[in-house]
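Q: Convert this sequence to structure tokens.
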Amino acid sequence: MTMKGKVLIVDDDSEFRSELRDLLMGYDVTEASSGEEALQILKRANEIGVVLMDVQMPGASGIETLMRIKKTDPNLHIIIATGYSSKDVAIEALKAHADDFLEKPMDPQEIIDAVEDALGRADYGATDPETVDINAKIKKVKNFVERNCFKKTSLSDAARSVFLSPKYLSRIFKDRTKQSFSQFKIGIKIGKAKELLQKNVYNVDRISEKLGYENTESFIRQFKKLTKKTPTEFRKKFHPKKKTGR
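A:
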């Protein structure tokens, strides 16, 4: 059976999670019993297209977890669900950039519609390994790398997302794109670095850290190799007078 998409259910009620899993049969469902567990799952490279999360949980609340997820992965679609519904909770969830808000008890069709709508907008549909051609797989790998640019993403991670061996993916990726997987990944990271430098919110050390570099010197070296400028020199083009950190 071909899966429709990847969904992360976050709720401390195991029985409710089981009911949702049964309802979302046909989707690739992952479960988390707390906000912290969800954050650990999302910290790794993944293909999750939508998170369905309860507000009331032990430890970090759904709203707090929502805010932390959006800070690192703003494009991930998150549906907030609560049995403690009020206008204030709904407003709080939407202010934290929730993509949808459902009240418990939830209508089954309403849940399915919300998940399908989120996955449709995210365009994270599943890949059938027997019918999707190589060009589609390459496109999916590119999207995978772009979505996970703030995480440590390996060739093996990308290969698993399209049901190929790392060695085979490496060969066909270079054959079709005229650059190695590593070169493409670095290009994506440097592109994101340029965006952050133009916004001038973070210093160079923080940008290096956010992009997953082990040290700032490596980041600066790669940035200069691709752009012919250091990050500081690049930023000065857009903010010539404002003094910022390294």
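The first helix runs from residue 14 to 23.
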